[in-house]
Design brief:
By secondary structure, the chain is of the alpha/beta class. It has two domains: about 300 residues, Alpha-Beta Barrel (TIM Barrel); about 110 residues, no CATH class. About 45% of the residues lie in helices and about 15% in strands. The strands form two sheets. The chain has an eight-stranded parallel beta barrel. A four-stranded antiparallel β-sheet has the order 5-6-11-10. Helix 12 links the parallel strand 7 and strand 8. The longest helix has 22 residues. The protein binds D-mannose and manganese (II) ion. The site of D-mannose has 13 residues, from helix 13. Manganese (II) ion (MN) binds next to helix 13. Keywords: Lyase. It comes from Palleniella muris.
Length: about 425
């Protein structure tokens, strides 16, 4: 696999020169300054690409070229937005970029309730607390029917969320939170769930948004009546529309799984388990329609067994996120060490290293490499003061990357593949 790193552009305090020192080979980034729904021009793409190349690395993956809400819920300007997307894709292809990550999660991209949860080692990790999330839904968002939905989940409606929460008196916990919550607590929760995580990934919310909760409600309203089947059909329509461009320019599309891997806030979610993955791959059977194998997002759901998933889907995986989650007995989850948790990254690295060998034999040079990044990392040793996006610390991610580099070198040794560590004389 190619060792890559998510970098947020020229203003990122973590510079390309720093990344070069820690063995990063390829960059994962986006044109973060282009507003949602506008075309990415060749000039802007080329400018960033050349800047990355001037540091001896390549722009390996676009994460993300965002799919606007209208394409997801099937709004009136959907066709126009699909055209915009196609134009951006063609421009990327013309500039020699061949891998694009996106997600099909309505409204909310990835979600956590606590961004600095204490780890036993004194560092911190991202954390998802179901009771806090339910409190946010019922009492801050005040979503219609939310309390009834949560009750049905807790009472056992057969869903994966219901299984995750088995035996937990979630409604009592929500009440306990409500009894102690004040305006500041609510504000912090909104910051964590909506602003600090969403701000830089979905483009829907921005730092400084005055009324994020109101904006949230407006976005949720767009999905009124949109079912899981509707969302699936909209994804299929969109994929079919863009595949000719992907064929022409040899672009791999890779959808990021839902995080957490459950439907939330009454919204349908369609990429969070084996059956979902199989569905979208079969719906559009073109090898350019592929998956971002995010071991972290998938392992946050007890229903997902990661090694068999990788064994099943490696040929349609075009981008890998190697991190792992730990699920507490009550169903909450946090990000584990890259050497622990539910995802066995050693086994996954073995599968994907073999997959890269296969790609060397079967694909054109432009899409032979299989890019991998460690995704999130701990916040540690003063990362807090360095200016970073939630989960995207410098030292914490570097620690994870070093561990994963060791795993890959070991696996390569077993497989008889020559491992190279960039940046050294030998
Ligand atoms: C979560 C992370 C996310 C991801 C976006 C993609 O696992 O990888 O930041 O990049 O959800 O849209
Ligand atoms: Mn991920």
């Amino acid at each position: 696999m190619e060792k890559t790193w998510r970098w947020f552009g020229k203003n990122d305090k973590i510079t390309l020169a720093m990344l070069k020192q820690i063995g990063v080979e390829g960059i994962v980034t986006a044109l973060h300054d282009v507003p949602l729904g506008e075309v990415w021009t060749r000039e802007k793409i080329r400018d960033l690409k050349e800047y990355i190349e001037s540091y001896g690395m390549r722009w390996s993956v676009v994460e993300s070229l965002p799919v606007t809400e209208t394409i997801k819920y099937g709004g009136p300007d959907r066709d126009q937005q699909i055209e915009v997307y196609k134009e951006s894709l063609a421009n990327l292809g013309k500039e020699g970029i061949h891998c694009v990550c996106y997600n099909f999660m309505p409204v909310l991209d990835w979600a956590r309730t606590d961004l600095l949860h204490d780890n036993p080692n004194g560092a911190s990790n991202l954390y998802f607390n179901w009771a806090e999330f339910a409190y946010f839904d019922i009492h801050i968002l005040k979503r219609e029917g939310a309390a009834e939905e949560w009750k049905a989940i807790v009472e056992g409606n057969g869903s994966n969320a219901s299984k995750a929460l088995q035996g937990r008196d979630l409604m009592a916990e929500v009440e306990a939170i409500r009894a102690k919550a004040d305006a500041q607590y609510d504000r912090e929760l909104v910051e964590n769930i909506v602003i600090k995580t969403q701000g830089f990934v979905s483009g829907n919310f921005k730092e400084g948004d005055e009324k994020p909760v109101e904006l949230f409600r407006e976005l949720l309203a767009l999905y009124k009546g949109v079912t899981k089947d509707d969302l699936r059909n909209n994804m299929k329509t969109w994929l079919e529309a863009i595949m000719p461009i992907c064929d022409e320019y040899d672009i791999d599309m890779c959808v990021h799984p839902d995080d957490p891997p459950f439907p939330i806030l009454g919204l349908p979610r369609i990429v969070n388990c084996e059956e979902d993955i199989q569905w979208f791959l079969d719906a559009v059977p073109n090898e350019h329609n592929g998956l971002t194998f995010c071991a972290g997002s998938l392992s946050a759901g007890g229903h997902n067994d990661l090694t068999p998933l990788a064994e099943k889907f490696h040929e349609r995986t075009h981008f890998v996120h190697l991190r792992s989650c730990y699920i507490f007995p009550n169903g909450d989850f946090t990000e584990a060490s890259h050497l622990g948790g539910r995802a066995n990254l050693i086994e996954l690295a073995r599968i994907f290293e073999k997959e890269e060998q296969r790609r060397m034999q079967t694909r054109k040079p432009s899409t032979q490499k299989l890019p991998m990044r460690v995704d999130h990392g701990m916040t540690m040793l003063g990362d807090e003061d360095k200016g970073y996006n939630a989960g995207y610390s410098f030292l914490g991610r570097m620690f994870g990357l070093a561990q994963v580099q060791g795993i890959i070198a070991t696996v390569d040794n077993e497989l008889g593949i020559k491992y190279t560590q960039p940046g050294f004389f030998g």
